[in-house]
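Possible regression after last week's pipeline update?

I re-ran a chain I had predicted before the update to compare outputs. Posting the input and the new output here so someone can diff against the archived version. Not blocking, just want to make sure nothing changed silently.
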Amino acid sequence: MGAAYILQQFVGMLDIMSSVTEETLDIIYQDEWLVAINKPSGLLVHRSMIDRHETRFAIQLLRDQIGQKVYPLHRLDKPTSGVLVFALSSEVASLAGEQFQQGSISKTYLAVVRGFAPESGTIDHPLKEKLDKIADKKARKDKPAQEAVTEFERLAITEMPVAIDRYPCSRYSLVELHPKTGRKHQIRRHMKHIAHPIIGDAKHGKGNHNRYFATHLGADRLLLHCTNMTMTHPMTNKTIKLSAPLDTVLDQLFDRFGWTSFKTSD
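New output (post-update):
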């Protein structure tokens, strides 16, 4: 067996390893001005001092995947999944960004929360910006609370004969949410405010429920997903609706709870 053959096999193995480790993002919309992905839970949008040890970012992965620079138009928390939109030039980003700043973008989220949530309602609860010790060292510490409004509707409920808290059974709800403002962690903080925290929320939720879902139900992530986003295309002026399907964790959980009819949102 010659050295050339061995070298060829080694190079082939490296190619295979590279293809296995290379991550491909799910692109749900793309034209010459915009591209949108179904962001997986656990992926940062961009490099952050808050998570300095992270090496994977949506911006870099998408840039490498489509071969051109991308500009994020909005935020999506690291543990949250779903619709994430980018512009393909700084000019388009500036035009589209105005819609996000003006609050004219329509967003729909699905969340699994603790307890039986009210059938519907509007959470009008101002939020004071929570600053990070590292990333926000130079930010104003005395900023007043900002207006924050979230509309919600309970879609389904489930009850399990498991004593996770002090009750013999544990109750959960599937909630559809429509944030009308875009404050940091708004949905997570608002659901905590009405005593129905989102399952998997390590910061605003209940640890014992989070651990049960992770250990016994295979749901070890924040159960919050941006299913739909409707916006006006900054170049064509047409209305576009972006939809992101559930990941495997949420898909299987919905099956288990009998929520299959809510897997897709119109």
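Follow-up from reviewer: compared with the archived run. The beta strands are 27-30, 34-39, 71-72, 81-87, 106-114, 120-124, 149-160, 170-179, 224-232, 239-243. Marking as no regression found.
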